[in-house]
Amino acid sequence: MLLVKNLYIPNIKVINSPFEVWQSDNTGYDLAISATAFHFIQPQIGYRKVFDLLRNRGSIAFFWTEHVPLFDTRSL
Q1: Which residues share a beta bridge with 29?
Q2: What residues does 62 pair with on adjacent strands?
Q3: Which of 10, 21, 38, 74 could connect to 34 by a Cys-Cys bridge, CB 3.0–4.6 Å?
Q4: Which of 5, 30, 49, 43 lies closest to 14 in space, CA to CA?
Q5: How crowded is residue 29: how many other Cβ atoms within 10 Å of its Cβ?
Q6: pLDDT of the chain along its 76 residues, tens only?
Q7: What is the pTM of this model?
Q8: 36 in Cβ contact with 1 (< 8 Å)
Q9: How far apart are CA 40 and CA 19, in angstroms?
């Protein structure tokens, strides 16, 4: 969730919409970024849509947390 109050950042537009139904009014983007959320989108829909939205030579930056179990080596 992004909370912005009385904040203006030039060239940044915040859109609150499900990605699957959102329709872009732009001709292409240089970067698609998602933090700990893209895995909720069906891959057949999400990756194709990102590909279609990016300009030639555009980039994706997707990252999320991988939970790794903690092991106590003393108990082995």
Answers
A1: 54
A2: 34
A3: 38
A4: 5
A5: 14
A6: 445 566 667 777 777 889 999 998 877 899 998 988 898 999 999 999 999 999 999 999 998 887 777 766 665 5
A7: 0.66
A8: no
A9: 10
Tokens 């203006």 belong to residue = 8
Tell me, what amino acid is at 71?
Answer: F
Question: For the residues of 9-60, what is the DSSP string, one character each?
Answer: -TT-----S-TTT----SS-EEEEEEES-GGGS-HHHHHHHHHHHEEEEEEE
The values of phi and psi at residue 35, to 5°, are: -115, 110
For residues 63 and 73, give the distance between their C-alpha atoms in angstroms, rounded to a whole number: 29
- Residue 28 in tokens: 């292409």
Name the β-bridge partners of 31.
59
> Which structure tokens are listed for 54?
């990016």
